[in-house]
Amino acid sequence: MTEQRGPAAPAPDDFLAVDAALTGEEQAIRDTVRDFAARELLPNVADWFEAGTIPDPRALAKAFGGLGVFGMHLTGYGCAGTSATAYGVACRELEAVDSGLRSFVSVQGSLAMAAIHKYGSEEQKASWLPRLAAGEAIGCFGLTEPDSGSDPGSMRTRARRSGSDWVLDGTKMWITNGSVADVAVVWAATDDGIRGFLVPASTPGFTATTIHRKLSLRASITSELVLDGVRLPEDARLPAAAGLGAPLSCLNEARFGIVWGAAGAARACYLAALDYAGTRVQFGRPIAGFQLTQRKLADMVVDVNHANLTAARIGRLKDAGQCHHTQVSFGKLANVAAAQRVAAAARSIHGANGITLEYPVLRHMLNLETVATYEGTEEVHALSIGQAVTGLPAFR
């Protein structure tokens, strides 16, 4: 009589086997990015975080370009043309190392490149996208201002006509990669509404200054952009971008990456806590054997797998062309909150060791403080969901 065997025990790192639903190509991309991250990023990221910078951003950009993750979900112009889910998986694996490194890729691909790809002229696309995809050039996205974050429509940066040219004046704040960028996608108010412009970093009147003394996203370069009488020809304007909807659509692309990235940060904290609890001995046995620790780990397993399920579902909706922007808001709100809970629990399991850079948990905790507020605060995403289900706007 043949012995009947039950299902295999769940894998601790993918308890609900969420990744089993990935296609073969998506799994291959996952493995490639995960291997690259473990080999090239993880051994260095604690030092970069402590130093508060990325020592050689151009070398990192070329490495990411060689990996094929810049604009990988876009088609043509040297971009890989993968599924949205594959891009999300890559973001997850990068943020499992550090949120700042995922932001490097997100800003390049989902903000700067996506804006050019969607709203640029053929000449702009041909000029910039292949170089950005290869990591031979770095781009940034100038929307946020010192007094204009959650309400980008109140921006003060202005673009005015001067003959056949445009002249831009204003300040942009909290711009990832700004001081190392070769080109900035800058959004400005005009007499005809919000418009986007491609500003080469060498343009007179354009300056970018690195912001220091950050306590979050330290393995990342964050900058202030100042535009003082920046004169641009008409062909620097993104011709298909009209109104605030254009930059907001780019932000939605970046938020999609955050939905997946937060799941990666959560997984990294949980796995660090699981490993630590299994080796840390107190009262004669590993702390993983105590009920209170196991309850924390069980809650972490639920949060990590809920986050992965949410990301996977939104990825498939996006691949089918059926993803509404409020569903991305749902994902960012839910997954960042889940990641914060997991990081806090992991920090407690690590005890005093949890505050050091020898372990990843506090670094992730600090990064998630930024992830919770950029690309839309949790309050804004909650109100977005509230409007979607009630039909009543509560922003004003």
Automatic annotation (TrEMBL):
It catalyses: glutaryl-CoA + oxidized [electron-transfer flavoprotein] + 2 H(+) = (2E)-butenoyl-CoA + reduced [electron-transfer flavoprotein] + CO2. Its EC number is 1.3.8.6. Keywords: FAD, Flavoprotein, Oxidoreductase, Transit peptide. The keyword Oxidoreductase applies. GO terms for molecular function: fatty-acyl-CoA binding; flavin adenine dinucleotide binding; glutaryl-CoA dehydrogenase activity. Gene3D superfamilies: Acyl-CoA dehydrogenase/oxidase, N-terminal domain (1.10.540.10), Butyryl-CoA Dehydrogenase, subunit A, domain 2 (2.40.110.10), Butyryl-CoA Dehydrogenase, subunit A, domain 3 (1.20.140.10). Residues 140-230 form the Acyl-CoA oxidase/dehydrogenase middle domain. One of its GO terms (biological process) is fatty-acyl-CoA biosynthetic process. It holds the Pfam family Acyl-CoA_dh_1. Residues 243-389 form the Acyl-CoA dehydrogenase/oxidase C-terminal domain. Its cofactor is FAD. Pathway: Amino-acid metabolism; lysine degradation; Amino-acid metabolism; tryptophan metabolism. Residues 24-136 form the Acyl-CoA dehydrogenase/oxidase N-terminal domain. It comes from the Bacteria. Belongs to the acyl-CoA dehydrogenase family. This is glutaryl-CoA dehydrogenase (ETF). The lineage of its organism: Bacteria, Bacillati, Actinomycetota, Actinomycetes, Streptosporangiales.
